Amino acid sequence: MLHQRLRLCRVTRESSSGLEEYAREFADAGDSAFVLTGGDAEAFFARVEMFEAGEDLPENRVRMTWFWLLQGDRILASSRLRHQLIPVLLLDGGNIGYEVRPSERRRGVGRELLRLTLDEARRIGLRRVLLTAETTNRGSIGVILANGGVFEDTSVSPNTGRTLNRYWITL
Ligand SMILES: CC(C)(COP(=O)(O)OP(=O)(O)OC[C@H]1O[C@@H](n2cnc3c(N)ncnc32)[C@H](O)[C@@H]1OP(=O)(O)O)[C@@H](O)C(=O)NCCC(=O)NCCS
């Protein structure tokens, strides 16, 4: 079984040996769901550490923990857990963001990734989490519904102007 070999792991230098290859797969596929912010691994880790510390963050950002979903040492996917909701996140972003590497989609990886990230949300004391997905993003909506998401309403993203579905998951 695929899932028995998957584990969620905090993003650290030690857990990120495949980072550059992971980012390259998205770039080669013309997919912007994961971009190596700043262009290199060091800039990426600095950003991860800044968000995890939750101090001196840019406006409208909150403390956030980054995870890899690993199969052995190979990164299959990543998720980001935002520790609190602020008005802009209520409209777009919610508590959790995620992406699966293009070559691993449609195999249940996204569903397992969110399931394990919900365990982490529970661990930091959240009682329910908000998930948002563009109304056209069938994959993300599938992942959310498979994890017990309850449709709340639609909103318009203040970031992109696109229409989003909002879902709550009770933990
Ligand atoms: C969205 C995403 C994470 C889905 O990951 P995945 O590993 O392909 O999802 P799964 O295989 O676990 O699929 C979960 C469900 O969604 C359905 N699904 C997945 N991709 C789909 C697609 N492109 N179209 C229709 N349904 C889809 C699956 O059939 C499955 O439904 P089921 O539980 O009824 O079988 C992945 O497509 C991705 O990384 N997209 C780019 C980033 C992104 O959109 N992130 C979310 C932002 S809100």
What is the correct CATH architecture? 3-Layer(aba) Sandwich
CA(first)-CA(last) distance: 26 Å
- What is the CATH fold-level name? Aminopeptidase
Q: Count of DSSP E strands?
A: 7
Number of helices: 5
Shape: globular
Q: H/E series, N to C?
A: EHHEEHEHEHEE
Structural class comes to alpha+beta
Give the bound compounds: coenzyme A
Our count of domains comes out at 1
Strand content: 25-35%
CATH class: Alpha Beta
Q: Numbering strands along the chain, what is their spatial order in the largest sheet?
A: 1-2-3-4
Instruction: Give the biggest beta sheet.
Output: 4 strands, antiparallel
CATH superfamily: Gcn5-related N-acetyltransferase (GNAT)
Q: Over the alpha carbons, how many angstroms does the gyration radius reach?
A: 15 Å
What do you see in this structure?
Strand 2 (64-71) and strand 3 (74-82) form a beta hairpin. The strands form two sheets. Strands 1-2-3-4 form a four-stranded antiparallel sheet, with helices on both faces. A three-stranded antiparallel sheet has the order 5-7-6. The model has no long low-confidence stretch (mean pLDDT 95). The protein is α+β, with helices and mostly antiparallel strands and 171 residues long. The chain has helices spanning 19-28, 41-53, 87-91, 109-123, 138-146, and strands at 6-10, 64-71, 74-82, 96-100, 128-134, 150-156, 163-170. The protein has one domain (3-170): Gcn5-related N-acetyltransferase (GNAT) (Aminopeptidase). The structure holds coenzyme A. Coenzyme A binds at residues 33, 98-100, 105-111, 133, 137-140, 142-143, 146.
